[in-house]
Amino acid sequence: MPDHAPPPTPRTLFTEFARMGLSGFGGVLPFVRRAVVERNRWLDDREFVELLSLGQVLPGPNVINLAVMMGLRFAGWRGALAAFAGLVFVPMAIVLGLLLLYEHFQDIAAVRNMLRGMTAVAAGLVLATGVKLALGQSRTWRAALVGVGAFVAIGVLRWPLLPVMAVLVPLAIWLEWNTMRGVKTGKLEAE
Amino acid sequence: MERIAELLGHFATLSLLAIGGASSTIPDMHRFLVEANGWLTDAQFSAMYAISQAAPGPNVLFVALFGWKVAGFGGSLAAIVGMCGPSSLIAVGFEYFAGRSPHARWPVLIRRGLAGLTIGLLLSTGWVLAASIDHRWTGIALTLATVVLTLKTRVHPLLLIGIGAAAGALGFV
Predict the structure, then answer these.
(1) Which of A13, A63, A105, A121 to probe the B interface (max B CBs under 10 A)?
(2) Alpha helices in chain B, H assignment, sequence order
(3) pLDDT by residue (tens digit) across B6-41?
(4) pTM for this structure?
(5) Most buried in the list A68, A94, A120, A179, measured by CB within 10 Å?
(6) Can you give the pLDDT at residue A8?
(7) Between B55, B143, B164, which is nearest A94 by CB?
(8) A148 at B interface, C-beta within 8 A
(9) Which residue among B88, B105, B145 places its CB closest to the CB of A64?
C-alpha cells in the first residue's frame, strides 16, 4: 500500500462525506468511491471493494454502513459519528426543505399530478434495479424459490416483514450452504 | 411523543431486516404507516418517496420524510436514527472486531444465499409504489417505459424523473 494519504480527522470526514452526500442523486455510491479512492486516497480499490461487500452483507443502508466503518477505521468513534452526520444530516436538510416547498404548493392540482408522474418513474427505477440484479445472478431454482416467495408474501399479500424474513432468511442461507457443501464434497471434479 | 417512540421502534426493527439496503423495507413501511396506523394516505406515501428521489443524498433519506409527515421534525429524526442506528452499530462492531482479518467463506455464503431474497424484496417495493399511484393505463405505461429504458439505455435516472414530473404536471398520469 504505497500511496495512501494520511488518515483524515473527524472534521475532514464530516465535510468530505457531506460533499459526497450532496453530489449524488439516486444513489451516492459512485461519488463515495471517487472521493475515497481517487480524490483522497484513503483506501485503494481493493480495500474499498472489501469494505463495500461487507457493508452489503450486513443489514441496513449499504452506503451508511460503509461510511461508519471507514469513519471508525480512520478516526475512531468520533470519526464514525462525523462521517454519518455529514452523509445523512447535511442532505437531509435539503430533502426536508423540498418537502416544505411541496407542502406549500400541494393544493395546486398540477403539483400533485407532477408527484404522481415522478412516482410512476420511481417505481419503474426500483423494478429495473430488481430485474438488473436478477439478470446478473446465476439463475438457480433456490434463488427463484426464495425470490418469488418474498415477492408474493411482501409485495402481493402485504404480510409483515419480520415473520417473513424469520422464515426466508434461514431457508435461503440453508439452501445455499447445502449447495456449497455439496460442491465441496461431491461435485468438485465436475466443476 | 407516543408516535415518535413507535416510529423509532419500528424503524429500528426494519434497520436489522434491511438486507440489500433500505429500499427493500418499503413494502413494510407502507403496511405500517398507511395500512396499519393510517398515519399517511397512499398518495402522501408515494409523494414522499418521489420527493426524496428528486433530492441529493443517500437513498435512505426517504424515511426522514415519512417521519416528518407522522410527527414533524422529531419524527424525521426518529425515523432516520431508527433506520440507520442499529445497522450502523453492527457495522462498526464488525469493523472493530473483524474488519482487518481476511474474509472467510461466510460473507460469500450470505451474499449468494440472500441475493434472491433481495431481488424479491426490491420487486415488491416497485410493485407497492406502482400500485399506490398507477390507476390509469398511462401511469402503468410510464412505469413500464422506465423499466425498459433503464435496462436498454444509459439514460440518467434524474432525467427520467424529470420526464415523469412533466408528464404528470400536464395531466397525463
Answers:
(1) A121
(2) 2-17, 26-30, 42-53, 62-98, 106-133, 137-152, 157-169
(3) 999 999 999 999 988 898 999 999 999 999 999 999
(4) 0.87
(5) A120
(6) 95
(7) B55
(8) yes
(9) B88
